[in-house]
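Minutes, structural biology subgroup

Action item carried over from last meeting: produce the structure token record for Sigma-54 dependent transcriptional regulator (Noviluteimonas lactosilytica). EB confirmed the sequence was re-checked against the source entry. Recorded below for completeness.
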Amino acid sequence: MGASPSPDPIPSRAPSLLIVDDDVGFVHAAAELARMQGFEITIAGELNTALNRMRQRDFDVALVDIDLPDGNGLQLLEDVDPDRTRAVVVTGRPTVESALQSLRSSVVDYLVKPICPERLNELLHAAAVDRRIAPPRATAEQRHGMVGEAESFVSVCRMIDKVAPTDASVLLHGESGVGKELIARAIHAASGCSGPFVAVNCGAVAGELLASQLFGHEKGSFTGAVSRHLGFLEQAQHGTLFLDEITEMAPALQTHLLRVLDFGCYRRVGGHADLPVEVRIVSATNRDPREAVASGRLREDLYYRLCGFDIPVPPLREREGDAMRLADAFLSELNVRAGTRHAFAPEAVEFIGHAAWPGNVRELRNAVQRAYILADDGVVRLSPQLFPQRPPSESAHTITFTVGTSFEEMERRILRKTLQHYGNNRRRAAAALGITARTIRNRLARERGMPVTDDEDL
Ligand SMILES: Nc1ncnc2c1ncn2[C@@H]1O[C@H](COP(=O)(O)OP(=O)(O)OP(=O)(O)O)[C@@H](O)[C@H]1O
Ligand SMILES: [Mg+2]
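Output recorded by EB:
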């Protein structure tokens, strides 16, 4: 997208730069300078890749080398719209012809390598100002390298900017791999909190162990507690505690956590003193939090405490154009790290833009990495054949289990899904499952850690 010609308020998106060059050293240095000015960068090591990128979107500035492995960079200038893009030619081999050709086209500057960093800085700065583009509020680095320009993603970034400086608890929810942890880190980074960011996966640790990991324990509070242990909560003092997979936290522990949020204090396992704590809580879940409350996985009162500010993170398929932007960013990262100049094949560009990406950004990142490793001729090919068999996705009316799921977990999920299907009507769900409503009630009570009155086999 180019800068809008409208006279309205200054757009807040980052200015964009396309670097077309196969000289890794120059690309690296120019990207670094531009990043410091808040530019969002796309790199193309070849003419064809650059043409593809320019067809997909507009750039505010294009730095174009003349001698490219597959042709003359000046060809690109025919595709540049001077109202939208400032084209700057950079070359290590200046010639009168190329200088004249540049002058005749939309090129605003002609730089000869080695390029003076101050000159390039000035040029980028002028381009940003000229385009009336305000420096972005947070650069990619400040946002932990989050890439994305789709409206649905930009609105998430706006929410991050708004909520970060407050002390509101934030609940992030969205499918697996959409970037919840990255967003949690971005919130912390922009919060100005002096303490650290401490992440805890509530689904990965068993109940009692999680209590001691979270709240810490006193020496001798249980067998093996040979010394006092500082909990994550204490470690996150004046910082952010990220509670991942919050709906997997055992019910008893949810009660303890509620106490922390209500009173700002906690007790170590085996301790008697109430210790004050000042921590920002950001939590995340792959589930629909309201559904988790309805089905009893998440205490309702805790939900309201955690959800001071709710951020639904959209799946990648609902972020128009971002799959390619992310893929470009991942490939650039791999190229810069290894000093290579691999580029996507045209079919790969097509595929990336149209694939559904059920595993979201994580799946895309892994796919790019895999294709990059396999690209022995420098052409990164991505096609459906490259993907290991995807597990069938779950819908509102189906349940999918992977091999290795325990009977207990299967039983629990069958019960939840059936209840959900019948609008939480236990009698109808029981009839469908061939059990009694009392069995359902007892199973739910057991999960919530409440006394079970009577039970029958499911
Ligand atoms: N906007 C983004 N820009 C760049 N990288 C991203 C972006 N979003 C996610 N990623 C990358 O995708 C991967 C998955 O992100 P993350 O772990 O934050 O997802 P998640 O929502 O927490 O997933 P899960 O629910 O499975 O825990 C990470 O490697 C992360 O760095
Ligand atoms: Mg995560």
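Discussion: The chain has four domains: 16-130, 151-312, 336-384, 407-447.
Next step: EB to file the record with the rest of the batch.
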